């Protein structure tokens, strides 16, 4: 079966571009006014969002919930990374780890809902560390502070092609 395009429940152009590169198909982003639940469990967040979007659109689609967990903060911010990044910025996030372990784990929890409404779960993880300060202009979000294991560069210093070799979405 050939897939012409997929609906991705996001308005983030960076995520859409990455998904297209990784999946090799046209990805159409969509955004609805849906209240996102707050939970330390990214699976609960992704499933609730997937169900809400499918109920509204009645079309196959996928959603994701991304977490960034810092060992030095006992797993936080985890699924709250987006809100913390908005509040503190990448410099502030890096500063939180001063004098603490910089080990980190990036995780994406992806839910694909097929035409029948059946949910399919995928989880991707990339181990790494947090830079002492932001580096690079590429990517989006916390890319300038995340260094994947085995690399010296942050995601923000990498081309999209290089980043996708390490990405938790790949």
TrEMBL record:
Q: Where in this chain does the entry annotate a coiled-coil region?
A: none
According to its UniProt record, what is one Pfam family this protein matches? Ham1p_like
Q: Name one GO cellular component term.
A: cytoplasm
Which keywords does this chain's UniProt record carry?
Hydrolase
Q: Name one GO biological process term.
A: nucleoside triphosphate catabolic process
Transmembrane residue ranges: none
Which terms in the Gene Ontology molecular function aspect does this entry carry? Answer: nucleoside triphosphate diphosphatase activity
Protein origin, superkingdom: Bacteria
The record's section on InterPro entries has:
ITPase-like_fam, RdgB/HAM1
Query: What is the similarity comment for this entry?
Result: Belongs to the HAM1 NTPase family.
| Name of this protein | Non-canonical purine NTP pyrophosphatase, RdgB/HAM1 family
Organism whose genome encodes this protein? Candidatus Woesebacteria bacterium RIFCSPHIGHO2_12_FULL_42_9
